[in-house]
Amino acid sequence: MGDSYRLKIGDFQCLVVNDGGFVGNAHMLFANAPEDELLQVLQRYGHEPDYLPSTWTCLLIKTPNNVVLVDTGFGTGSEYGGQLLPLLREEGFQPQDIDTVILTHGHADHIGGCVDGTGNVTFSEATYYMWRDEWDFWTTEATLKESSEWAASIARQKLPPLAGQLQTLDKETEIVPGIRVIAAPGHTTGHIAVEVASRGEYLLDMVDVALHPIQIEYPEWYSQLDQIPEQTVATRQAIYPRAAEQNALVLAFHFSPFPSLGHITKQDRRWKWQPLQR
Fold first, then answer.
1. 3 state DSSP class of 213
2. What is the pTM of this model?
């Protein structure tokens, strides 16, 4: 199930890791799309409405001075994920080698690997970073009630043990030289993207700004999983031009097939996803 893919961005060594995945459907992913138009678009893309595979693609960046992990996957003990740690070890990285962990938001497929089955912090030597509003949302009982009980229970297990190692952010920040956190709210209240820059080359990990390549062409089509739909659309309208202007290699956490990498370009007045050919 798992897979990994190496690439270079300037002086940085990057490793894209497939923690696992699941199969979604059109009703979930394109909640507000007109049905007739959606069926036509799905047919043009060669997709079946009830079979839309999704990956869980984490990112590791080795800079000259740091080893940075963006998101931790679902964690062990799941039939859907849990491949991150075995794949990191296959590539020569032990959990204690990672000094920085960026948590882009509080959904289970991004925070599940933070803590192991016994409650111990997985990346014990790392400083963790999360947007302050996001941390507050997922660690406050009043707001946890706005989520499903399943999502809330995962947050209760995985986030409090990080408190002693976690720094919260309230502005766009360079976490380590060449790696910057970008505000990208909408999918969740404090969702963030991550920009990697070295020697004029860029990798933009837009995480869950879009959940499927169709949402590059149709940024107005949000999903049932987007907490603030109108903000999701506004964030896409800001992120896509940024990626195109920088000619950034874009990583989209859920885009299938793995390695979930590609470029965003403009064609016929619409944005398009051009997947990386392995």
1. coil
2. 0.96
